[in-house]
Specification:
Helices cover 30% and strands 23% of the residues. By secondary structure, it is of the alpha+beta class. It has two domains: 8-195, Fructose-1,6-Bisphosphatase, Chain A, domain 1 (2-Layer Sandwich); 206-337, D-Maltodextrin-Binding Protein, domain 2 (3-Layer(aba) Sandwich). Strand 1 and strand 2 (65-67) form a beta hairpin. Helix 1 (8-17) packs antiparallel against helix 2 (25-46) and helix 4 packs across helix 7. The model has no long low-confidence stretch (mean pLDDT 93). The structure holds manganese (II) ion (2 copies).
Length: 358
């Protein structure tokens, strides 16, 4: 017998029925984002067949080479969400300034911040990429939007999510009541709830970090990774696996599914950059999702969601995943900052270190 499938449309309407004063704006916005995601998924999937791969021959606000699909995905997100009357303004990795909703459309009460194509360096090699978004409330929807409207700590996000364009196209969402995962059924063109209430195990034997940066790491990160590598013969007394997909969305989905810890920590590679990933449209939405799934997200020295942003494209160190591991890494930072980890700054340690700075 047919028991019905929960589409994203039904899910958002049911969510709205839980809030008696809801206006429909929120589900309208989510469905517009879902449409954008389906269009981007289609472009990513067709790839070379439609000439969508390769560089666009331009740079974004941060001096990064833009892929054609970065530009296409950004256009799709803007065009599919600007007309609905849900938004006051939006901001994107691919746009230097924020984008106020044009005057011909109604101005709404939300702000949308997004990374239209995350991991786009993976596009040409056919490895999973995605889109990340964060929804904030406009502080004063009656006046024209301003830059500082966007500079809200992540804890104030109304909702966040990401799409993953992998073997399946998935959409992962939180509105502050846990994390639900949807899979795109291309035959009917709808997202179906397939992963309700995802939970990150508190413990893990898997870590992810770009080890080519190891000589630039701070001692607490070196200490943590050393201990993982030492496995059964070290203080952790268990063997670890390492993963590095170099795609934040793919790493996040893996951690949501089976646990793990991801680190893009502060390092000394480029002293002008306090981290690699961007606070507003990468760290904040991922941190919100991870916390809602029972995990933790930190700079190493504090909760990501408590950071007060200072700029649209601000970068930040990001460590997230299984709660007990993230807390351990935070403790190593505290111990280092208080000079309590002598063992790990000693020459002895460096001699036996695989990732020695010397
Ligand atoms: Mn990204
Ligand atoms: Mn991107």
């Amino acid at each position: 017998m047919y028991e019905g499938r929960k589409t994203l449309t039904r899910y958002t309407i049911e969510q709205e029925h839980r809030h008696p004063h809801a206006t429909g704006d929120f589900s309208g916005l989510l469905n517009a984002i879902a449409t954008a995601v389906k269009i981007i998924a289609n472009q990513v999937n067709k790839g070379a067949l439609i000439g969508a791969l390769g560089s666009a021959g331009s740079e974004n606000a941060q001096g990064e080479v833009q892929k054609k699909l970065d530009v296409i995905s950004n256009e799709v997100m803007v065009r599919e969400t600007e007309w609905g009357g849900h938004l006051a303004a939006m901001a994107s990795e691919e746009m230097e300034e924020f984008y106020p909703i044009p005057a011909q459309y109604a101005r709404g009460k939300y702000l949308l911040v997004f990374d239209p194509l995350d991991g786009s360096g993976n596009i040409d090699i056919n490895i999973s990429v995605g889109s990340i978004f964060s929804i904030l409330r406009s502080p004063e929807p009656t006046r024209p939007p301003r830059l500082d409207d966007f500079l809200q700590p992540g804890a104030q996000q109304v909702a966040a999510g990401f799409a993953l364009y992998g073997p399946s196209t998935m959409l992962i969402l939180t509105a502050g009541h846990g994390v639900d995962g949807f899979t795109l059924d291309r035959d009917i063109g709808a997202f179906i709830l397939t992963h309700p209430q995802m939970r990150i195990p508190e413990d893990t034997r898997e870590f992810a970090i770009n080890a080519s940066n190891s000589r630039f790491w701070e001692p607490p990160v070196k200490r943590y990774v050393e201990e993982c590598l030492a496995g059964k013969t070290g203080p952790r007394d268990k063997d670890f696996n390492m993963r590095w997909i170099a795609s934040l969305v793919a790493e996040t989905f893996r951690i949501l599914t089976r646990g793990g810890v991801f680190m893009y920590p502060k390092d000394t590679k480029d002293p002008d950059k306090p981290g690699r990933l961007r606070l507003l449209y990468e760290a904040n939405p991922i941190a919100f999702i991870v916390e809602q799934a029972g995990g933790a997200a930190s700079t190493g020295r504090g909760r990501i969601l408590d950071v007060r942003p200072e700029a649209l494209h601000q970068r930040i160190p990001l460590i997230f995943g299984s709660k007990n591991e993230v807390e351990r890494i935070e403790r190593y930072h505290t111990e280092h900052d208080h000079g309590l980890d002598k063992e790990f700054s000693s020459p002895l340690f460096n001699v036996r270190s695989l990732f020695s700075a010397q």
